[in-house]
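Subject: Sanity check before I submit

Could someone independently write out the structure tokens for this chain? I want to compare against mine line by line before I put it in a report. The sequence has 425 residues.
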Amino acid sequence: MHIYNIFKLKCFLWQLAFYFLISILHFAYMIHYDDFNYVRFTQGIEFYFYLPRYILSSMIIVTYCVLLLYSKVSDFLYGILLLILVFFVIPSGLLFSSNEELNPGIFLMHNLFFLLVYTFSFVKWNMTFPRINNYQSMILLISITTIGLIPFVILYGPYLNIRNLWMVEVYETRRLVEANVHNLYTAYTYSWYTKIIIPTTLVFCIYFRKNALLIVSIISLLFLYLCGAHKTVFYGTFFMIIFYKYDYLRKMTFFMKLMTLFLSLTIAATLFFDFSILWELSFRRALMLSALLDYCYFDFFNHKYLYWSDSFLSSLVHYPYDISPDFIIGKEYFNKPEMNANVGIISDGFKNAGYYGAIINIIVVAIILSFLNSLKISPKFFGLFILFLFTLLNSSLTTILLTHGGGLMVLVAMFLLRNTQTTLK
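---
Independent answer below. Compare away.
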């Protein structure tokens, strides 16, 4: 068997193992955790293992795994589709199987997301635009960072606390910064630098072995962390470094193996030592809480659509509530008025325009991913797109494209990363 197919087969087996292990964890432990208990208490709904729905969702998920095994999509799209399966379809399928009366439309939308991204992968983009070579790209990004951080130095400088590097006085710094710094430029570009520009620079610096510039980039990242002490600053760099080596197939095989082994560890720790903190902070928080929030948004905003009145159409459409949708869900479903229940792109679309809104968001993301697929980007930069997909779980589409740097990511990919699959080996 060709080595290419061997890695796909290994990844396929890890996918199946992951799915059935996460199923055990969900039905044995997660549906009895506080998140589900709050919703159970406030809404009077029970969560349990419903076999007919689990058989149906399992057949669909296994079919997708087989499709990935035999499909002829590019390695980039293979990785993207696998992440959509893990982050979106599997958690939604498990929630769908947790009650015979839960809205099946939620699971349907996540399936549509997977299928449309797969379908759009066959779209051919015949666009020509200039491209900056790799070394010049590195210099450009370093220059942008150096100049662009000057306003941060001026505005945040008086509030820097070196003790934050040791996770000391973190919340005090956040409150101080939130009370004293109000600037549109820094508010928008903070995530641009930490999630896109600096992580991309780091990859170029590592490739060209420019240690001095690498140190400058790391110092810039540490400085931005001190500008508010937000640990999310390191997410982009973390994903870039972890997924720097190897091609797409090896990365995804490693990813599924790592996820499955860690999942096995969390189950064993819970079963033998009653130690549940591992899955509480990982799989529950990253996967199943997002799926549960989808249910909450679909339930609350059904036929009470906002039509983007809390977003870019606020000047045209009246917003009917006193607090934002995130806090409404926290209050109504978790009895926590202070809880910011983040919305994903599918729930974001649904709360604004029902299933039409969800489909619009799905199509927009599918087009973006199809376009990125056409650029033939080096797998060294795959961490960027893993982070992008992960943000789709807990942010609205407009926020992702503007504040979180999704739009900038597309521009960087177009002009700086295009064809790096062949020029950056």
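---
OP: Matches mine. For the report I'm noting this point. The mean pLDDT is 91.
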